[in-house]
Design a protein that fits this description.
This protein is of the alpha+beta class. Helix content is about 30%, strand content about 25%. A 13-stranded antiparallel beta sheet has the order 18-17-16-15-14-13-25-24-23-22-21-20-19. A six-stranded mixed beta sheet has the order 1-2-6-3-5-4, sandwiched between helices.
């Protein structure tokens, strides 16, 4: 056992050294120099130093890892008690100490709605009094005997942990049985705990990174998903002692529990202790709990403003597979490669190259059915957008070129080495065994983890990046000063939340005092009614700039219109071209190979509905439903529904009556993607006010056009049908 411990430790240390030396350049091995021994004087004994007798290592060459050792999962025993507790026993008689870990499939994910915190408060109340002892009596009895017992909750797990000297093992088990069957939850202790909990929530809200992670869970799992619930002062204030008692009696059952016993204990002793002290813990049915499917929020930026913050807490996140799926190990490895430790991508860029942060991070959660992969950093406010662009760039590059094979090998060696080293601590063995039980997996699932990890190659990591971290899969969460909000607009529509994780209340709308017909008439007048009536054709051309996940592409744009509903548009960004046509009846689009395809009716309808430089002028002509929703201090809000059923929200300047912004959702295979179009810098051309600057913002990209405009010249009917179809 001793030799194996040393060998595993060396493997882990060498793996860690390899991780930390990723930046060193390998030099060529230097040839060993032959030395000629000097003949000693007659009558003397030749002296050979140790350094001459042993080959000197080449200090310029990094040593490689030792040959791998055969790995065997440590021995254990298991059985099930009469009342249904699944028991693991791992004997280790080196020290006279016993530890136990009892896990019940019931955690804070099962809190009643709007009473988030019940399970956590139950955990804190278990040792606050039983039918036999008060809180002070329990504390005095345990402390005086060197016994410690604590409880905690997380997700779908409720855990009671304990530790005792061999001579106090009986006391630990008797106390465990006492709190499992006879906790009383006294009112005075509950009231004190409630006050303490509310105070601790205030401390949590003072942490921007804590809030960013909490909002990230809501964004990925779903705003009302049990795994995303967030305990607030309000939910805590609503909890009563009866709520805690109900949870205790409903969920703490032996038939949904497992206990792991580790240390100076035999299988016979374990059976006797459990029969003596936990046999009275009665089985029972538990409430049916529907956690629900994952429901990731639509793409965009989820922002919590914190006035006065000098840093922004950034979390880039996405949905990840369940921990028991074939993909999870590779996704977990990928997250470590991206942002865990000194050799990771984000450490080398965000910290070493740009000095944006001290501690970037990345990780994948461990839940049975679905998970969350997240990465980010806390950075100073002034570089918020720059740091986000670096993260997006690294993810795009990983999906495009894959991981560095040598770096990935070091990461795998490190992960495997640390896992094997962790098994030298028997309490970790117990934890792994109970993980298999929690996830309804065989023990081989944890025993063979190193094999699964070693089978992950660069191609698999690349595949996982493309599958789970594509631009449409990513969501951005930022907590920071309100001044950083303009920086975030390039990453898509912004959804603002309060520090209690609730959507920020929209500004209340006042009566606009204008009908839809009156607003369209006012808009037409603002454009220049006489000039608009004389428009036959319009040409808008100029510079185009696309910001795609931190990469900037520049080119040109050309748009030709024939009133009222014909358009040809050509976007040329050098590395890509896109051209569309609609003649008012059909629509076409160019393909990457230069060919042209006629669009399906649904897509053609969308193109035709937007074939105008002035969208509000064709709403009535095309049969839109138009509703004036109200007015803010400086804007009139209008909602439209197109003939194809698309709902859009439009903002008109309350003073000029010109259109400033339109918002809609575009349907994609990954779900709806919010789109925001902005119109600005109106200038008069031939009696008509045109928006000389146009931008389209989404979570995938932001594209901006800066136009020059000409009217009633150089446009013919032939421009609106591709040559290939004529």
């Amino acid at each position: 056992m001793k030799k194996r411990s040393v060998a595993i430790a060396i493997i882990a240390v060498l793996a860690l050294v390899g991780m930390n030396m990723y930046a060193q350049t390998k030099s060529k091995k230097q040839k060993k120099q032959k030395t000629t021994a000097t003949t000693p004087a007659t009558g003397t004994t030749p002296m050979i130093s140790n350094s001459e007798a042993i080959d000197k290592p080449d200090i310029n060459v990094q040593p490689g890892p030792l040959p791998p050792k055969e790995f065997n999962f440590p021995p254990y025993e298991e059985f099930t008690t009469e009342n249904g507790i699944h028991v693991y026993v791992i004997e280790d008689h080196a020290l006279p100490r016993v530890t136990m870990s009892l896990i019940t499939r019931a955690g804070d994910a099962y809190d009643p709605a709007n009473k988030e915190g019940v399970a956590s408060m139950m955990a804190d109340m278990l040792l606050k009094g039983t039918q036999k002892h008060t809180a002070s009596q329990l504390a005095e009895k345990l402390d005086g005997s060197g016994v410690s017992i604590s409880a905690r909750t997380s997700g779908e797990q409720f855990t009671i942990s304990g530790s005792a000297l061999k001579q106090s093992t009986e006391l630990m088990f008797s106390t465990l049985g006492e709190i499992l069957t006879g906790a009383t939850f006294p009112a005075d202790e509950f009231d004190k705990l409630k006050e303490q909990t509310i105070a601790s929530i205030a401390a949590k809200q003072a942490s921007p990174s804590e809030q960013a992670q909490a909002l990230s869970r809501k964004v990925i799992y779903g705003m009302d998903n049990p795994f995303a619930r967030y305990q607030t002062k309000a939910t805590t204030a609503s909890i009563t002692a009866d709520d805690v008692k109900t949870f205790y009696h409903s969920w703490l059952k032996p038939n949904i529990s497992s206990i792991a016993l580790v240390g100076d204990i035999t299988i016979a002793e374990a059976k006797k202790l459990l029969a003596t002290h936990l046999n009275s813990w009665k089985t029972g049915e538990v409430p049916k709990q529907n956690v629900g499917d994952i429901s990731t929020a639509k793409p965009g930026v989820y922002f919590i403003p914190r006035k006065g913050s000098v840093q922004s807490s950034i979390v880039v996140c996405a949905a990840a597979p369940g921990v028991t799926t074939d993909d999870w190990t590779a996704v977990d490895l990928m997250s470590g490669y991206i942002g865990s430790g000194f050799g990771s991508l984000l450490f080398k860029t965000l910290r070493e190259t740009y000095s944006y942060t001290y501690s970037p991070f990345a990780a994948t959660t461990r839940v049975k059915r679905y998970n969350r992969i997240f990465m980010g950093a806390d950075v100073r406010s002034s570089v918020t957008d720059s740091a986000i662009n670096v993260i997006y760039h690294e993810l795009a590059n990983l999906a495009k070129t894959g991981p560095d094979e040598e770096e990935l090998s070091r990461r795998i060696a490190y992960e495997v080495g640390m896992y094997q080293l962790s098994l030298e601590k028997v309490s970790n063995v117990a934890s792994y065994l109970q993980s298999a039980w929690v996830y309804d997996m065989p023990v081989s699932w944890v025993a063979e983890w190193t094999t699964r990890m070693q089978e992950v190659g660069p191609d698999k990591v690349t595949q996982m990046c493309r599958k789970y971290l594509s631009p449409l899969d990513l969501r951005l969460v930022v907590v920071g000063d309100p001044s950083v909000r303009p920086m975030l607009e390039q990453f898509g529509p912004i959804f603002e939340f309060t520090q209690d994780m609730q959507p920020a209340a929209e500004q209340k709308l006042q009566d606009a005092g204008i009908t839809a017909d009156e607003l369209i008439a006012a808009y037409t007048a603002a454009l220049g009614a006489e000039g608009v009536s004389g428009l036959k054709t319009v040409t808008m051309q100029g510079a185009a700039e696309m910001n795609f996940q931190g990469q900037v592409l520049k080119g040109t744009v050309l748009r030709k219109f024939m009133m009222p509903d014909k358009e040809m548009s050509l976007l040329d960004l050098n590395v890509m071209k896109q051209q569309q046509w609609t003649n008012g009846d059909k629509a076409w689009e160019s393909n990457p190979d230069g060919s042209v395809s006629e669009l399906e009716p649904a897509e053609a309808s969308r193109i035709k509905e937007n074939a105008t430089p002035f969208p509000p002028l064709i709403w009535k002509l095309k049969g839109y439903t138009i509703a004036v929703k109200g007015k803010t201090d400086n804007a009139i809000i209008v909602e439209t529904v197109s003939p194809s059923g698309k709902t859009s929200r439009h903002t008109f300047d309350a003073s000029t009556r010109l259109l400033m912004q339109s918002e809609r959702d575009e349907t994609t295979p990954q779900g709806p993607v919010p789109i925001i179009e902005k119109y600005s810098n109106y200038q008069n051309v031939q009696g008509v006010n045109f928006p000389m600057k146009y931008s389209m913002e989404s979570s995938l990209y932001t594209i901006t056009y800066t136009y020059s405009v000409s009217t009633n010249q150089g446009v013919t009917e032939a421009d609106f049908t591709p040559a290939e179809t004529k």
